[in-house]
Amino acid sequence: MSNSDYVLAIEDLTVSFDGFKAIDTLNLYVDKGELRVIIGPNGAGKTTLLDLICGKTRASAGSIKFKNAEMTKLAEHEIVRSGIGRKFQTPSIYENLTVFKNLEVSFPRGRGVFGALKFRCTDDVKERIAEVAGEIGLEEQLSMEAGLLSHGQKQWLEIGMLLMQDPELLMLDEPIAGMSVRERELTAELLDRICRNRSMIVIEHDMDFVKKIAHKVTVMHQGKILAEGPMERVQSDPKVIDVYLGH
Ligand code: ADP
Ligand code: MG
To answer: What value does the mean pLDDT take over residues 195-207?
Structure first.
C-alpha cells in the first residue's frame, strides 16, 4: 500500500512550544473507513495532534496529507472544506435554538450563523436534517430547544452538526466525558453507525469504551507513538502498561 491510499498520512510531524516538542517527529496513517482511537497519559500530545490536523495550531515541521493533499499550509476553514470535521471537548451548540435549527445552520452553505439562518429551508436541507437526526438518535427532539437536552444529547447534537457537512474524516476529543453508562453505550453504537462511510479519530480514556469502538489503537507518550495496533496487543504491551494502563 502506498501512502497515497490512506485517507490521512502524517509524516515527521513536529510542533515546538518554546523549545518543548509537544509533537515529536510523529508518523500516523489512517485508512478509509477506519475508526482509530488515540490513548495516552495526560500531556502526551493527543489534543495538540488534533489541533495540528484541523489547522488550529501550525506545525513546526513535517507533513499532514489528507486524501493526498497537503494540509499544513491551509487555513482552518479550508481544512474543514476539504472534508475534515473536529469536535472539541466542550460542546459548542446554540442553546437557545431548536435541535432542528442547530442542524440547519450547520449545513455547509451560509457564511456563519447569521447568513445561514436566512437561507430558505429547502427540501434537500430538510432531508439531510432528518437523516442526521436519525443517525444521532434525536428525531424526537427536533423541535426542542437545544439547551434542554441532556449532557449526552448535546454531545450527539454537536456530532450531528459536524455530520451536516458530511466530513470524510471526523475527529472527536473525549466524546463520552461526563456521560451516563447508558449514554456511553448509545455513543458506541452511534460511532459505529457514522463510521460506515467515513474515517474517524477518537481520543478517549475509558478503556471499556475504547475496546468497543476501536478498529486500531495508537498509544501516544511525550509527543511520540509508543505503540500501535489492535486493542488486545496494545493492552498487553509492557511499555503501554508501564506508562499508561498500569496507573
Ligand atoms: P493531551 O491531550 O494528550 O493531554 P495536550 O496535547 O493537551 O496533551 O498537551 C501536550 C503538551 O503540550 C502539554 O505539556 C501541554 O502543556 C503542551 N501544550 C499544548 N498546547 C500548548 C500551547 N499552545 N502552548 C504551550 N504548550 C502547549
Ligand atoms: Mg487532551
So the answer is: 94
**Mean pLDDT, to the nearest integer, of 104-121?**
64
Domain 1-83+168-247 matching CATH 3.40.50.300: the answer reads yes
Q: What is the pTM of this model?
A: 0.92
Task: Identify which ligand lies nearest to the alpha carbon of 38.
Answer: 1
Cell, residue 223 = 509527543
SS (H, E, C) 76-142: HHHHHHHCEEEECCCCCCCCCCEHHHHHHHCCCCCCHHHHHHCCCCCHHHHHHHHHHHHHCCCHHHC
* Ligand 1 mean position, distance from CA 163 (Å): 27
Q: Does ligand 1 have an atom closer than 6 angstroms to the CB of 22?
A: yes
Work out the average pLDDT over 64-93: 92
Closest protein CA for atom 14 of ligand 1: 43
Residue closest by Cα to atom 18 of ligand 1: 22
Identify the band that residue 119 occupies on the pLDDT scale cut at 50, 70 and 90.
Answer: low
**pLDDT band at residue 118 using 50, 70 and 90 as cut-offs:** low
Q: Is the CB of 221 under 6 A from ligand 1?
A: no
The number of the ligand nearest the C-alpha atom of 16 reads 1
> How far is 66 from 7, CA to CA, in rounded Å?
6
Ligand 1 atom index nearest CA of 203: 2
Q: Which residues of the chain form CATH 3.40.50.300?
A: 1-83+168-247
Q: Coil, strand or helix: which one is 237?
A: coil
Q: At 186, list the grid cell.
A: 448509545
What's the pLDDT score for residue 124? 84
The DSSP call for residue 145 is B
What is the total residue count of the chain? Answer: 247
